[in-house]
Amino acid sequence: GPYGAPAQDYKEYDIVLLVGLGIGATPMISIIKDIITNARRLDGDVESGNGNGGGASLFRTCRAYFYWVTREQGSLEWFRGVMDEVAEADEKRIIELHNHCTSVYQKGDARSALIAMLQSLHYAKNGVDVVSGSRVMSHFGRPDWAQVYQRIADENKQKRVGVFYCGEPVLTNELRGLAKDFSRKSSTKFVFHSENF
Q: Which residue windows are transmembrane per the record (predicted)?
């Protein structure tokens, strides 16, 4: 897929955390599509009796967490079709998708409470997010990265997690630092990779 050099090694990990800041989501979307393609190919090989034959034999990734953080709500339209396609194609639910719009106040803030309530009701009734127009629910504000790492560590004990970040350098140090911290204080080992622009 058209993803940059730091992300080419994603297949070495059973678990991946993919973080795209703004347009940095582009290579992460390519990885997500590659994961789905390889998972389908692997299922086809198993069903046909070929075991792990073909190109899928090198494929290890069985779980992916994708966080896209963008400032503008309009940016969510860039990948709406792809996000819907992934949500539909991911039959085994190996990919967890998260959109975060930072121009809106975070969850729990009184200023965004009404829109969050309307968004939840609309999503529950129609299965479509009112903010992004896709099947992927959007969140307001920045992710709590420590909580993200903690949850992934709790769900993947004794595993190695590849963390791949693409975006402006502003987030690199925080994500790298959390990868080191959680590798020390949990049984999960996080290996950080980044590409900045």
A: 15-32
